[in-house]
Amino acid sequence: MISIPLARSLRDAGLRWHPTTGDRFVIDKPGVDDDVYTVSEMTVERHDYPSGTVLGFNGTTEWALDSVDASESLWLPREDQLRELLGPAFVSLTAGYTVTATIDGAQRTFTDPVAAEAYGAALRAYIAAALD
After folding, report:
1. Phi/psi of residue 63, each to 5°?
2. pTM of the model
3. pLDDT tens digits, residue range 73-82?
4. Were 17 and a residue from 75, 76, 99, 124 both cysteine, which residue would form a disulfide, CB within 3.0 to 4.6 Å?
5. How far is CA 101 from CA 15, 41, 59, 112, 117, in A?
6. Is 123 helix (H, G, I), strand (E, B) or coil?
């Protein structure tokens, strides 16, 4: 799982989340961002309305929480999702978790002890280059 700071930097760089079953997220507010939730028809379900997406908490007993607006949530993309978002820019992942990606026509490497963090750093650079 990627760190909350990396997830925030990806969101701030322009990564948009369209919640789907299996996605993990935190509520992006101080004091409540320690709990990681998973979108699931059993517990947290996506509801699309003309005003926006709402994440409904079904049968939650530990909180008096019915729903939270998706804009108040922070997506924690999985390793496979990050790799998919890199698309054709992804070149390879090697031992030691070094991701190689082609960004602005040049191969760049991103290394981290956690593979998802390396993918996230590569995706952040890819998004930034696309916006330039």
Report:
1. -135, 155
2. 0.81
3. 999 999 999 9
4. 75
5. 17, 35, 42, 14, 14
6. helix
